[in-house]
Amino acid sequence: MSxxxxxxxxxxxxxxxxxxxxxxxxxxxxxxxxxAREGGGDIENNFKLKMAVQKAxxxxxxxxxxxxxxxxxxxxxxxxxxxxxxxxxxxxxGTAILVDTICDNRNRIVQEIRNxxxxxxxxMGSAGSVAWLFDKKGIITVDAEGKDPDEITLLAIDAGAxxxxxxxxSIEIYTKANELEMVKKALEQKxxxxxxxxxxxxxxxxxxVEEKAAIQTLKLLDRxxxxxxxxxxxxxxxxxxxxxEKFESGDYE
Length: 253
Hints:
By secondary structure, the protein is an alpha+beta fold. 47% of the residues lie in helices and 21% in strands.
């Protein structure tokens, strides 16, 4: 099992900063609308909606905004205009890139993503070109502070988890996509609360590339996530701590 892409952690840490600009609220609103459209507006009986709402709360999104998004999705009006679209392509050195979007204009987002690929040394791929390199998994993150990682690991495996990884003060629990809710509830019954729970596309195998290509890939991912229609981006690059620090500091050519 490959580790959850470190890029997602960077973006999660930047969430509060982005929220000040309102961009993260736009993305979260779309996610809530889609979840409510698909499974109804009852948060307790729609796990996808429950995850989206919890993510919005964690990002300090106002309660009124959340409620309006749920109503819009459950009502079927604006929700019917939006569609989920996954785009694929290759980054520098042939790295695999997946881009999950929620958009109201398919042609526009395809063109915007293609332009970013071209400008950042990549190429747009056809449907299915790199998707096979990723598995859809559930990821439950538990704060490791004050907890016994070995005990959490055993409880998670007993609850049906596929793998557990301890890193950077957190415990990441990987599940089959359709068993995320089951494992999360089983852990909650053992008084283990999650700091986050989400569905993600995890590379089956991570690859190492030279520093310049890794930083260029991070630039590509960053440009894509600046788009309001982009929800998540994934790559199969194993980003080292050194590369991430250099990228965040801007100390590169």
